Amino acid sequence: MSLRYAKRMDNIKASEIRELLKLTQKPEIISFAGGLPAPELFPVEELEKVSSKVLEEQGTTALQYGPTEGYEPLRVEITKRMEKVGVECKPEDILVTSGSQQGLDFSGKIFLNPGDIVLCESPSYLGAINAFKAYEPEFIGVPTDENGMIMEELEDILKNNDRVRFIYVIPDFQNPSGRTWSIERRKRLIELANEHNVAIIEDNPYGELRFEGEYYPAIKHYDTEGRVIFLGTFSKIFCPGLRLGWVCAEEEVLNKFVLAKQGSDLQSSTISQMQVAKFLEEYDIEAHIENLKKVYKKRRDLMINTMKEEFPEEIKFTNPEGGLFTWVVLPEYMNARDLAVKAIEKNVAFVPGGSFFPNGGNENTLRLNYSSMDDEKIVIGIKRLAEAIKSMMKESQKA
Amino acid sequence: MSLRYAKRMDNIKASEIRELLKLTQKPEIISFAGGLPAPELFPVEELEKVSSKVLEEQGTTALQYGPTEGYEPLRVEITKRMEKVGVECKPEDILVTSGSQQGLDFSGKIFLNPGDIVLCESPSYLGAINAFKAYEPEFIGVPTDENGMIMEELEDILKNNDRVRFIYVIPDFQNPSGRTWSIERRKRLIELANEHNVAIIEDNPYGELRFEGEYYPAIKHYDTEGRVIFLGTFSKIFCPGLRLGWVCAEEEVLNKFVLAKQGSDLQSSTISQMQVAKFLEEYDIEAHIENLKKVYKKRRDLMINTMKEEFPEEIKFTNPEGGLFTWVVLPEYMNARDLAVKAIEKNVAFVPGGSFFPNGGNENTLRLNYSSMDDEKIVIGIKRLAEAIKSMMKESQKA
């Protein structure tokens, strides 16, 4: 017996990262592979308190169906988060989603016919590419440098492709590269999107986790025609286990997202939304974020400094100003997938970078996460990784 | 500015029920419109206790990312629920979803190319039709009688349409009709599906809420080739606010659902899954379900008996053996949408039945929910509805 599946299923592969994460759940593994926030910083006690309060005060509401758009007090709280990235909006501009991943799926559902083109940074977030693939688009990876997408390249691509439906970007501490877009590029992106009538999907899970320097306004801050769809999440500033994120967009576009939500799962968890709203009302999320930043900054410094000390000179890596990831570029003759096998033998895991390129190639790159391992593990893990790199280099020279 | 949306968005309309529910949230309205479980029966205190326990004992795990497939102890508990409907399965056959609505969306995503055909009962669940519409199928509503789909009609349709990808059915206490499939029809459905190599989506949110008579085995119980995909949910036996449901299917098919889940929202809420698993371990869900059945049976009896007393003889309605709904058929010259306007004036709400027919028509039908209103409101509401019906009949006779 073999059932007949939709054509789109030929495109959808298991996420290499999620599969890798399964392999690396042994406790002896030092994992730089996932994008996990540090669990020891989760506000567990506070959540227990608000959880009890919500159930005591509004138990039956918390366990009942609620509106598709989301729990009103949480939508109000989300407008405050949007303010922090320079976006003024009303609660009606917010749809609560099950993580920002759901916003990615809906973006594909709403905008993409088969054969339409998605532009994204090269490299880009694997989970987004996988979500969009279900809607059978083609991908063009736009070359990037340390200031984000290269605007001349983007302009060229837009001029030569009239089936571009949206440009997908992660402007702050990008996953996987750790890079941040300059303000000039943000403004220019809006001009080009206006000119070519395409939407922009701005995915911003890490924007509030800036360790140094000044906050840049979100791309949506510069939006003049309501064509930027902003995806936010509580996963990185609060915790991912509750699965709560949001879409912020103008009325016409947001209505489409609400329709997608209705068909997909009716609504996000009523009780989780009430818990997070209550937490934001009763506790100081800004202080919590400050603490996250302090810890993550220290871990980043430790990882970067250990890499500087231990890695051979030919190995390049980014020094992100925030977020969870740094990006390593090996010499071109090296393959990060082979390195990953060697590293796993030494009980160290990371994600090879090739998967982050929608059109393939770049097998000499890899992504390292520094948020989820403690100081000692970061040092040991990077030292082991350095050994693996050096031994691979030696083998290549012999061959 | 107008962005260009995917063609599929032309098909997707706001659910009439969800829109209606918004209008009927005024406290003075007696609503038979939604499909809401009785909130006063939610196990609020028990949930508060398990919630605290989960956070105290495994707080960091509960708030962290978890596996796409679902929390293992919950998958084990779900196999016990499947046993109750006569399906033996392993935890690996279960994917935890965000309500069974998400299983419907994934069914469309996995099986449907544009123009493929979905067969469903006529009438059928509006939320399923809306979910499938995103994948641009055509619908054929198969005629039904008091024992489910009429098998001769189904066979004819299968013989004459080679693009049928799946048959969508709600065999127990169907939404909206309240009807239950006979065992003979269940068996015959499997034979026909095998013969024509189509999948069956068995949506079973109410199966455990049988007030009288014996349980029928799920259609999946009779599945000989692994072509039945069973969708279950905790919404009706526990509470809907947590948004937890499941898919039970054979390995090959379930893998496709897991891929869909990964792209759509990575996973369902870790903490909610742990809470429900803990509840099922520590409390007696069977006793809870017995209590639900007792209350709902009483409300059904009250609604049916009041309708018998108050409605004119020409009005027909089903007497469901379980679930949440009864189905009313007015004389053909009457329109239930007009009646709904009249009823709302009397502060009574219901859902006109026309929307439940994928190919339209049947405007003289309506759906009544008896689970969410207390005894007094049921009697008052039905009396008011009877008045509205009688006054509309009089007007028609005059005209």
Automatic annotation (TrEMBL), chains A, B:
The lineage of its organism: Bacteria, Bacillati, Bacillota, Tissierellia, Tissierellales. It comes from the Bacteria. InterPro entries: Aminotransferase_I/II_large, Class-I_PLP-dep_aminotransf, PyrdxlP-dep_Trfase, PyrdxlP-dep_Trfase_major, PyrdxlP-dep_Trfase_small. Belongs to the class-I pyridoxal-phosphate-dependent aminotransferase family. It holds the Pfam family Aminotran_1_2. One of its GO terms (biological process) is alpha-amino acid metabolic process. The keyword Transferase applies. Homodimer. Its cofactor is pyridoxal 5'-phosphate. One of its GO terms (molecular function) is pyridoxal phosphate binding. Residues 48-385 form the Aminotransferase class I/classII large domain. CDD domains: AAT_like. Keywords: Aminotransferase, Pyridoxal phosphate, Transferase. This is PLP-dependent aminotransferase family protein.
